[in-house]
Amino acid sequence: MVPPFSLLTEAWIPVLRADGEPDMIRPAALTDDIDGNPVVAPAWGRADFDAATREFWIGLLAAACGTRADEDEWPAWFEAPPTPAALDEAFAPLAHAFVLDGDGPRFGQDREDITGETRPVSQLLIEAPGVNTVKNNLDHFVRRGGVETLSRAGAAMALFTLQTYAPSGGAGHRVSVRGGGPLTTLLIPGAEDRRAPVPLWRSLWLAVPHRADGPPVPERVFPWLVPTRVSDKGQPTTPDQVDPLQAFWGMPRRIRLVVEANPEGRPCDLTGRVDPLVVRHYRTRPHGTSYAGFTHPLSPHYQTKPGEPWLPLHGQPGRIGYRHWVGLVVGDDGDKTKRQAAASVHDGIKRLQNQDDHAARLGTRLIAAGYDMDNMKARDFVESEMPLHLVGKVEFRPYDETVRRMVRGAFEAEFILRVSLKQALAIEKGGLLDLGRGRFWERTEAAFGKTLAELAKALPGAGLEGDTPHGPTLDRWCGHLREAATAVFKELVPVEDLTDLRQSVAAERVKAEIGLDWAMRGYGKLGQTLFKALGLPLPEAKPKDGKTKDTKSESTKTESKPKKAKGGRG
């Protein structure tokens, strides 16, 4: 007889330690050897599983230890983490909710022993081709058959990942608490040695929300402990009807894993481990829990109109970079759309500001991860990091205003570059404009991080008050923007072949390049808008030999002006 698989006592989570060696641990071993060779990252070999594992740990810590995450007690565990034995003791009251198989409630699965036709276990993977796609032999790009057998550990993580990020699955198959492909943002604090990896514990504990009303009732947190709140008549489930912590443990899909013997010793197709019991199929039923009104602590949210509910941001094509600062790191009250950073980021910044550990603040990074979904189709899984280099409470307001102006200025500089390219190449839209846009943001990414680090060091002695930005930083940043825009323009607009072009075409290219340079120096309407965004004083007058028109030509009058920088896709 093989005992039931407990996700709290089994060593089932693959991780990477600071020395680069892989390990397999139980959840409480997260803090094992934290001062010598700590755990630094999940290591499933799949970015979506790694991201879901971080959420699993944060949700577990929130349910078991959230009462300790207040202003007084939180710092003690951040500086001196609890031992694995202490975490085992804290997790013990929740043990019955974390058994994957057996006769009682099953982790992440419907209470009913669902009968009927089975589906291959590969269908638990979000990127897998759907049932109809396989049936009609249309799985040309993402082929079937790559995953046929999962160990119980692999099945547990596949199931949790699906329930956490569930996209639309057809009639009656509900999406996750945050909809399909939600974006998750977390802070990674710095360390004294910038080259040393940061213990995973510090990032996870930094994101755990404080619980003020005592330990939760497990049956209100973990939906598989009670009969499923079905939605066959469209009934929603709100935070008032369950514990708000169910945001971490939502169960939109009604699923029962089919656990069977593995006499031939077939290894797991995801982990390579041999388990005496494996999962090759599962059964499902429509109309699982339909969630509404939850504000997830790990996701940034937006609001289109006052009074309407806050909606979670979702992953989008392309990498996430500093142009998304506003909305991912700080909130924004835009003209049409309001954005707020994830509670994990907002509260994490405050927690770090209260610490004496300057290295933790100055080395802070933000990680953003999530599926880029097209309805039911997974186009990509996006994961990016960007530096924050946070400062203390006193300096944060001028720091925040300076960074906001840097981002706004970058959007204006990108607009000037795009207008200049349109004029020089006589095109309205197309690949070259998109290429120029992408190159501009890539070229300025490193300079942004370096500028932030310099700003964080300069502000403590600058004597700025309120929302006053740091002028010298903005002036240097304007130089970086001008350099990047000029370089990208010259790469995409050839000048060595001007003698082979019609005189009018050559003249237009030269005019566009001159116009770009003057606009990036603050001249003309576009230049004035750039300098206003950056908060820089306008140049006194244009030199006499610089009589160039504004770079916005007749061919670009329909170009829409960039809106105030927000935390969406930019």
Question: What does this protein look like?
Answer:
Helix 11 runs parallel beside helix 13 (471-492), helix 12 runs antiparallel to helix 13 and helix 13 packs antiparallel against helix 14. Helix content is 34%, strand content 13%. With 570 residues, it is an alpha+beta fold. Strands 4, 5, 8 and 9 form a four-stranded antiparallel sheet that branches. A four-stranded antiparallel sheet has the order 12-11-14-13. The chain has a three-stranded antiparallel sheet with strand order 2-1-3.
Summarize it.
The protein is α+β, with helices and mostly antiparallel strands and 570 residues long.
Q: Structural class given helices, strands, pairing? A: alpha+beta
Estimate the global geometry from the Cα principal axes. globular
Q: What does the largest sheet look like?
A: 4 strands, antiparallel
Low-confidence runs of at least 5 consecutive residues: 132-144, 548-570
Keywords:
single chain; 570 residues; alpha+beta; 2 domains; 4-stranded antiparallel beta sheet; 16 strands; disordered C terminus
Write the layout of secondary structure elements.
Layout: E1 13-17, E2 22-25, E3 39-42, H1 47-65, H2 74-79, H3 84-91, E4 119-120, H4 131-135, E5 150-151, H5 152-165, E6 184-188, H6 200-207, H7 218-221, E7 236-237, E8 254-261, E9 277-285, E10 290-291, E11 301-303, E12 311-312, H8 325-328, E13 332-333, E14 338-340, H9 343-353, H10 358-362, E15 365-374, E16 377-387, H11 393-425, H12 431-458, H13 471-492, H14 503-520, H15 524-534
Parallel strand pairs: 7-10
Antiparallel strand pairs: 1-2, 1-3, 4-9, 5-9, 6-15, 8-9, 11-12, 11-14, 13-14, 15-16
Helix pairs in contact: 1-5, 11-12, 11-13, 11-14, 11-15, 12-13, 13-14
